[in-house]
What does this fold into?
Amino acid sequence: MTLTIRPATLADVPAIVALMADDHNGALREDPSLPIDPAYEAAFHQIAADPHQHLVIAELHGRVIGTLQVTLIPGLAFKGALRGQIESVRVASDLRGQGLGKKLIDWAVEHCRASGCRFVQLTSQRNRPDAHRFYDRLGWEQSHLGFKLHFEGQH
It folds into this structure.
């Protein structure tokens, strides 16, 4: 089973949106219907234009089966450390439990290390216990309590 991890292209956007909609949380906020909402394409172009953003897909036998986004964040904390932020980690529901998510996360961690990050971080919604067990098994530790502020009409 050869997994390919590569930068996402505009043609991958419908498959990425479908992966994001393939869980309880994503089903409430994402719209994988075709034609794809132009807002997703606009977001893709914005991500692709930013050298600190890395949207990748995992491909298996020509099928997009996973995705994640890595953001490199410069900061003054930790003596000017660069940090990596991993977001929107998804693996197709019919392929979970086969080690593919680990390969995707390993890729992201190595990308952050090679980019000069001092550490890498991610968040996971409280109602995703399977994801939490996954990150625990990979050696991640819960270190912070996160907060969000949604703007009215922009959920």
Summary: The mean pLDDT is 94. The CA atoms of residues 43 and 122 lie 20 Å apart.
